[in-house]
Fold:
Amino acid sequence: MLADSIVTVAADGFTRGRRVHLETTTLAGAPISEIEHLGGGLLRYRHPGQPSDHYVPERAILRLSVMPPEDEL
Structure:
């Protein structure tokens, strides 16, 4: 399932200390600090330093970017 793949790639980026950005149909490329597949293609994610959870169906995800940390640029 696409949602599982998205979570796997993001988790690998978090583990390696990379910056992970998510772009959806309603969100223009913003950093995320965690993401979880809740089932049925629904994802929950959170922005760094923000206590609020956000929910998005997998079909609304346009891009997931995993980039080097800021200090490696």
